[in-house]
Amino acid sequence: MYSYEDRTKAVKLLILYDLSYADTVSELGYPTKEALRVWYKEYIEYGELHRCFSKRQQFTIEQKQAAIGYYLEHGKKLARTVCQNVSGGRYWVCQGDGTALTSLITKQLLGK
Predict the structure, then answer these.
(1) CB atoms < 10 A from the CB of 7, how many?
(2) Is residue 101 part of a domain?
(3) Which domain, by its residues, includes 29?
(4) Which residues contact residue 10 at a Cβ distance below 8 angstroms, ignoring those fewer than 6 apart?
């Protein structure tokens, strides 16, 4: 993530360079053209860029505890309780019918 100052600098330089995305990215060495488009659109729409980022928690404490409980109750065998999300490289603790409870175990935790 880029700071508010970095993003503002990039947008102002983009405007100075007559909306030349390539020249702006080349000059600064960041961001991607797509990120710069998003920042510029936000700047035009609201007159400024957002200052803080808020990351919504993906799962509640109760959901995480339920997933851990399910894993422990089913013999701590990944083959019985886990299915893999191929696109994200995450492992999901699954219910008996194969539906995911939560993304609990990543490849890093498993040492893979």
Answers:
(1) 23
(2) yes
(3) 4-46
(4) 2, 24, 28, 30, 31, 36, 39
Q: Which DSSP string do the residues of 9-48 spell out, in sequence order?
A: HHHHHHHHTTT-HHHHHHHH----HHHHHHHHHHHHHHSS
Domain match, 106 and 66 both: yes
Q: How many CB atoms lie within 10 A of CB 63?
A: 15
Tokens 């999300």 locate to 85
Which tokens in the block code for residue 59?
A: 């799962």
Report which of residues 26 and 100 the model is more confident about.
Answer: 26
pTM of the model: 0.49
Q: Are 31 and 2 in contact (CB under 8 A)?
A: yes
Q: Is the pLDDT reported for residue 106 higher than 50?
A: no
Asked if residue 38 and residue 71 are part of one domain, the reply reads: no
Same domain membership, residue 75 and residue 104: yes
Residues with Cβ < 8 Å from 84, sequence gap 6 or more?
90, 91, 92
